[in-house]
Predict the 3D structure of the following.
Amino acid sequence: MTELERYELAEGPAYHFEVSRREFAKVLGGGLVMLLAAENARGQESGRGGGASETAPRDVAAWLHIGADGTVTAYTGKVEFGQDIRTSLTQAVAEELRAPLGTVRLVMGDTDLTPYDQGTFGSRTTPFMAAQLRTMAAAARGALVELAAAKWNVPASALDARDGQIVDTARGRALRFGELTQGQALVRTVPADAKPSATPPARWTIAGQAVPKVSAREIVTGRHRYTSDLTRPGLRHGKVLRPPAIGATLVSLDTSAAGGAGVSVVRDGDFVGVAAPTAGEAARAMERLKAQWKTTPQPSEGQIFEYLKKTPPEPRDGEGWNRGGQVSGSVPDAMAVAAVRLEHSYTVAYIAHAPLEPRAALAEWQDGKLTVWTGTQRPFGVRTELAEAFRLAEDKVRVIVPDTGSGYGGKHTGETAVEAARLARAAGRPVKLVWTREEEFAWAYFRPAGVIEVKSGARADGTLTAWEFHTYNCGSSGIRTPYEVANQVVEFHPARSPLRQGSYRALAATANHFARETHMDEVARAAGVEPLEMRRRNLKDARVRAVLDAAAERFGWPRAKAPGRGCGLAAGTEKGSYLATCAEVSVEPDGSVRVRRLVTAFECGAVVNPDHLRNQIEGAMVQGLGGALFEAVRFEDGLVLSDRFSRYRIPRFSDVPELDVVLVDRKDLPSAGAGETPLVCVAPAIGNAIFDATGIRLRSLPLIPSGIPAKPAS
Amino acid sequence: MRPVTGWYNGLMALLELKINGASRRVEVHPECSLLSLLRDELDLTGAKYGCGEGQCGACTVLVDGRPTRSCVTKAAAVAGRDVATIEGLEQQGRLHPVQQAFIDTDALQCGYCTPGMIMEAVALLRRKPDPATPEVVRALEGHICRCGAYERIVRAVRQAAGAKSGA
């Protein structure tokens, strides 16, 4: 199991309650129901011959239903945010069931209908959920074969599943799945450790193909309803009063002018909000509230790196954090005899996820039960937040996640759901709350800022002998080096962040790769060894070497030197994926920088959908470009200054370089997730290319918020 | 049709306009944006809220054929005009070539920016049936795709242009 990162915010619930078989039959109707036991389920009854048993498990990871009309419905607690897992998981189920893609439907992220799930993050859907759905679908195929065998009174081994049917080739007959499940009410359990004969990637026919996104037509016609598009009878529109600065507390509130027909005003502690028949009325009621706040001095961006280095978290918060790292050999001894000795500090700024759909929730109370539609990456976590906020049992709360307008790790929390539910309770009607862009920029959480201090020693030929790596605040993802170094100290130092911070696509792997791969370039330059050769010299890991070579080959490394142009590269591994990125930049006399070309070679085991994988990698490169070049949250004394798109620059069409993706498809290896990792090498590759072009070493992200600095950084 | 833009109640404006070819009579607050009229009053939710300052393009619709940021356009300002939204693009179950090209090139991830991009591209291709890549980039520069599918979106628009002029 992948280690969770501290910023993933992923506590499980205290209890898992048993799901009765009767409930499944009730919810799903007749047909065949397959339940897949969760890995952590205790006291499982083992199934027959690795197939399915008749007992409902205590904890269920996923379930699947085949109706009398042959429709296959798979249920998973994962959610779709643009990473295309609705499509890739549908492909996985269709593949193993031998069912046409169009007959498979996926119900996702609904706490009443889908099994418990920690959340959609950490690139874990493909390695874990897809594997689980495959296991279950393969077992379902086995069950269907058994049903047909019993019906025809032939051995199961004589039968095949193909194109939604069980086929008896020898006798030239076939039964459709629906014909087999008709009139049945079968509930079968697949044990967590079942190993039914899942199809090896080399023999995939549906998975592994570039099928179009299953929801594409709904989206291009505008018919898909995101949370912010939903409505309910009697709907009210909500608005929440935000403090003037971080850390401000409410002193007094005068609501006398805010009332009006159908307008509800709520004050509950420091929470102040209104609900009104239209969004305009809600906004106008809000303007008539008179609030007094007390602010306290807060750190500003100019002091942030010093602040993070010298401000450890409260001891309580620091407990149980994975500080990452390892210690081997003796760094001081190795440093003492090293031919090349370097010591540098690197920084990364806070950046914003800026999902194009801001946080939104629609809450409705009915007979003591709360239903909330909201775009969150953790539907079950948000259910817990709601249950705690309103002192309800969890079965009195339902969270439904419509396919959402992206998140990138920024929508793990349920604040909008709680706010909408509080307003709905006061209004006695359903309330929809859509955060404004300004709220999303100022009151959501950020990718952590941080400082990384690196000390290294190498022999004259560039072979590393000492490596000391300290990361402050960013997090520990990607903190370990894939290069071979005998003497190492690697440590993560948590800090108390003045801004709210949390998950962000690839987490700290971006910051840690930036520091490491920039530093590697510095060692190579100091030793006078060509940067690609220097990396190869220190690298044993065959998978990193393979992507490094693949990227270099496609890029044409090394490129002939041209005036004003520079090339850089970076490599790494994170979350089971391996990658290398090469960048070419041009620097104009006025100091502006254009990234001309990015080549990323990526390997994540067996590829499930090559076109969607390419799309994810290209998108990650573009997102990485923003954080590399110009994205930074500006803040001053508790006030976020960069609170709209006109004040926070993110990549646009004209910023996009030529993008080239090399997929290294390893059909012999299990598939890893790929939605995050492809962005981690973008920043160091570009930074190294800028150095190649100018001789100026940039050690802070963003690299060039306003062009190349006039004086070289020391 | 004569547009009606009378004030009454001292509070609400009454206006007539065409939406996707059909005449509509609606009552709106003078401060109400075109985006809010479409989404909240008429339940046409294809145009999206993304920023409220005309910076992201998610709310783009066509007013008399011109791409317009509906979030910074007052509803009352489009009285008597012809408003086209993404919902009106598909004809008798047939997708517009731009819509089809977005599917074919997988030019979307979360899809939230897609309706605005498509409307902008439809207007571009009407004015310029076969735009070169830099022209597509210039026309779409005011749109944000945070998922970063930019290269594919350009490809989709060029492909749609080819499908239209080549067919």
Observations:
- The CA atoms of residues 688 and 696 of chain A lie 9 Å apart.
- The longest helix of chain A spans residues 125-152.
- Chain A touches chain B through 61 residues (CB under 8 Å).
